[in-house]
Please model this.
Amino acid sequence: MTKAFEIELPDSYSELTETLDAANKILTTAVDDARTLFHTPVVSSYDGKTISSRVMVLREFNLENRKMRFHTDQRATKINEFSSISSATIIGYDPNLKIQIKLQGTVITHHDDEVTKDAWNESTSRSKKCYSVKGGSSKVIDDPASYDIKEFNVEYGYQNFAVLVFTFDTLEFLFLKSTGHRRAIHKWNKDLKSSWLVP
Ligand SMILES: Cc1cc2nc3c(=O)[nH]c(=O)nc-3n(C[C@H](O)[C@H](O)[C@H](O)COP(=O)(O)O)c2cc1C
Model:
């Protein structure tokens, strides 16, 4: 067993179920533990022409319903992208764990509904503050200092707050070890089908 942060993981993988169990532990722990790099995975969207990738904080992971939750600004470019093409890829790699996890699925965007209300209510004031930035995300500006948030009403930001709920139908696990890499794919159609892949 290898112990990294609070996660106990096998030293090697001989059963497919072990790879899914490990991914579940890593992603569940990553929600609250910023020491694992899976706390900030890369989320990619596609606008029909170009792929865009960005780092986002993982707010929730649930293997049972295959969902991940992310928070963002309703004015962000990715909102338009996911609203027209819901397809998404999420990837992370942590060199301490020597594990890469890649997920593919679809994103549903939420704005001013029950999902955003629940997520907003459990957010800290520090997180809420970001959504009070004026002008909206990705606008071209001359002076970034004039966009620093100084005086603000925490609740004002709610109107700009959005939630991305990602539902994955594949989870790929890659473990790098000099004695033999291990790569597994877990695909949910109606039922789960798991296979090894050449790493
Ligand atoms: C460590 C880190 C964490 C971030 N977390 C988030 C996040 O949770 N939500 C978010 O919208 N952007 C987050 N960002 C900023 C995004 O990477 C990105 O720059 C921004 O959302 C604009 O993306 P877009 O123009 O593609 O929509 C984070 C960036 C870093 C470096």
Summary: The chain has a mean pLDDT of 92. The pocket of flavin mononucleotide is lined by residues 40, 52, 54-57, 70-73, 76-78, 137-138 (CB under 6 Å). The chain is about 20% helix and 40% strand.
